[in-house]
Each structure stands twice: as C-alpha cells, then as structure tokens.
Amino acid sequence: MLNKDFLWGGSTAANQIEGGYDEGNKGDCISDHLTGGTLETRRCFTKRIDPQKNYPSHEAVDFYHHYKEDIALFAQMGFKVFRMSIAWSRIYPTGEENEPNEEGLKFYDDVFDECLKYGIEPLVTLHHFDMPYLLVEKYQGFLNRKVIDLFVKYATTVFERYKNKVKYWLTFNEINFACIPMGNLEVLGIYHEKTKDYTEPYDNLQDRYQALHHVFLASAKAVRVGHKINKNFKIGCMIAHVTLYPYSCHPQDMLLAQKTDHLFNDFCGDVQVRGYYPYYIKEYFKENKIHIIKEENDDVLLKKGCVDFYSFSYYMSNCISCQEGLETSMGNLLGGVTNPYLKSSEWGWQIDPEGLRYTLNKLYDRYQIPLMIVENGIGAVDVKDANNLIHDTYRVEYIKKHIEQMKRAVDDGVDLKGYMMWSPIDIISSSTGEMKKRYGLIYIDRDDYGNGDFSRYPKDSFYWYKKVIDTNGEIL
C-alpha cells in the first residue's frame, strides 16, 4: 500500500513544452537549433537558425503563455507534484552574464506560485538536455571545465531565488545518455563538425568521458551549494533506466548483459549516489585508452556531493545477446534484440510492466536510498473525434499495468516516494520533434506542420488518472 503522502503527478521539460524561445530576453539554447524530423529523417542540429527550416521548440506547445491553464488542469487531476525544468538560457541567456535575467526569473516565480496555489509541489530539473548555445559554440559544453562553474552559478541563482518555493530538485536529466554517442550534444554540449545529425554524432570516447567527469563535478557542486542554501532541499539524480535481460542463459549472454547494464544503467548512479568511480569502469577505461584528467580535489568533491534520492525514467526493457542474426526491435535503445514475450508500441518500444517491479527492487537493493519514478508513459497517435474527445484506452492500459507493478514493488519493501507519468500534456518529441507522437493526458491542438490553435482537451486518460490519484492508487 502506498503512503498517504505519495507524490502523484506528471513530468515535462522546458525545451518540449515552453515555446516563447525569443521572449523574455531568453537566449539561444541547444533545442532552438534542432529541426523537426521523424524516425526516418531524424532531427538535425544547425549552427545557425535557418528561417526556411522548422524548429519545433520555438513554439513547442506554448506553455509559456498557457501555464496557468495547464497547471489548473493538473490541479483538476489532483497532482501532488509537477516535474518541470528551468531553461538555463532564460536565466543566463549566453551562460556567461554576471547578472541573471530578471524576466526569466520572474516567469518561473509565476509558474511556481501557480503550482503552490493548488498545493502542487514543483520538482525542478536544472539541466534537461539543454544549455545556452554559446557554451556549445565557445567551449564545447562540459568538455571545458569552465562550464562547471557557469552551471554552478546558474544553479546557485535559482536555488537562492526559489528556496522557499521549491523543495525537490534534480541536477541533470538522464545523465547516463552521456555514456552513448547520442548524449554528446544533449547532456554534454559537445558538437563536432563531422556530426551528420544529432542522433548519429561523431564520437570521441576520451572527450565524452572527460566531459561526463565534469558533469559529475557540476552536479556534486550544485548539491553542496543547494544544501547550504536550504538544508531541507532534496536533490536527486535522474537516470534513464533501460532494464536489460540476457536473451538466453548462455554464459556469454549473461556476461554481456551484466557489462552493458553496468556501463549504461549503473555507472552514473553509482558515482552520484556513492560518490566514487566504480571498480568496473576502470577496466573499460583501460580497454578503450580513456584517461580522465582530474584536479586535486575532484574525488573529494564527488564524495561530498552525493544526491539525496535516486530518480529514473522507465519506458522499456531490452534483451542482450552475443548471438548474431536475431531479430531486433527498432525502438530499443542500446540496440538489443526483440524479446519474444513482449509487445511493442507504435514506435517499437517494448512494453514491460513487470520489468518496472524488477527494476525498483534492483535499484533499492543497490542504493538503499529513496526512489522516484519521474518518467513513464507511451507515445501514440491520438485521434480527436468530432466532439473533441480522445479515447486513449491504450495509454490507460499501459500506465495502469505499470502502476500495478509499482505497487507490488512497494509491497516488496521498496522505499518509493513518487510516480510522475510522462507527460501530463502533449509535447514535442525529444527524439524526433514530432507532435504526431503524443504522450499526454491532455491533447494539444497542434500538428507537425504548425497547424492548430494550442487549445487543450482532456483525454479519457485524464479522467482515469484523476480517479487513480483520488484513491491513492487503490482504484485502477
């Protein structure tokens, strides 16, 4: 049974909902330079904004102008928590200013005030796949140690400003994407001229892991600063957990699954929760001739900047095999092969509710600190009928089955503090920039071609989730 103070809610990201990219003295950020795409065409990163191209985040779903309406709808569902991110470039437009942008600070003041008016706790991500564009162009993002202090300056500013409005914070979203090439730009801010598009980047392992080391330091410094500003802050990490199973009981499948699990799912959490580099990463660095350049107090800082709780996203599981010629699922992150026991979403993501229970038990056994599920949902093509109704039974079924397994994990003894589905409203897709791929419980009248007036329409899942929250998960 869930505790009566369990945090039910939903999650978003500034670069996928806000829009208003050139309003309020906001500066250019990474997402402002990402074009729209599809699974076939992919999004592209352009160094200069081309007026002939489509940049979905420029308007997104216009939360910038609709936040009061949206938060009122979240309150109608009974949200206890709303996870969102702050756009760094709204606070420091280039990242290098000495003084923050007051218009940007005021915007988030207004958003938090609106949440608190309804008794909704904000859970704020400081870095959600975005940073001021100048820091990419001038420094190659976190590849340069100077960006650590620029991030900490930004974190300090918002910690101080919102210390009486925000209790829960996350430093970096899905930080472990830096362990695969697609995280070069999103997490690390590294862009190479040889990059074809942002989903198939040119990769340099030495640069990638050196920059990730700097991200670890930035996170640890932010945690320490936050705790000094308000000792009641709860500051967490955020990991994209792609649960991995060996495809067979062949010993080589077992070993490969274990190694992949360590390198993708465990490494970043181990550093941020335990405060040091785990044993297994040292052999990987040796095999790949990676040498992390550290300064004298880096290891001390990592140890002193451990997070208070562990949060993660969960959408799918993967199978890992050393065997060749096996069928692969197009949506599986990390490659992997198709699990014959699971169904897939329209985008090829394999649906595994029981894997969530397995994952919760694994994580709590590993870390023994409070957990939060801060992303879980399904992307689908939703159709609005003539009466503006959206019958998304598939979404209800997906979330229902995952909540059932979540509750079983709590009964197993896991200390779980909250569940935030992705996403309470339709947003532009992070991977493709599409509106066609919808996650929300609230439909946004907007398509991939810029048509629509941004009207909001609750889906069937909206009313279902309200009942779930009203009964603290007892009625599903």
From TrEMBL:
Q: Which Pfam families match?
A: Glyco_hydro_1 (PF00232)
Source organism per entry reads [Clostridium] ammoniilyticum
Q: Which family does it belong to?
A: Belongs to the glycosyl hydrolase 1 family.
Q: Determine if Cell membrane is one of this entry's keywords.
A: no
Q: What is this protein called?
A: Glycoside hydrolase family 1 protein
Query: Which top-rank group of organisms is this from?
Result: Bacteria
- Kindly give the InterPro entries that the UniProt entry links to this protein: GH (IPR017853), GH_1_N_CS (IPR033132), Glyco_hydro_1 (IPR001360)
The entry's keywords:
Hydrolase
Q: Name any one GO molecular function.
A: hydrolase activity
PROSITE patterns reported for this sequence? GLYCOSYL_HYDROL_F1_2
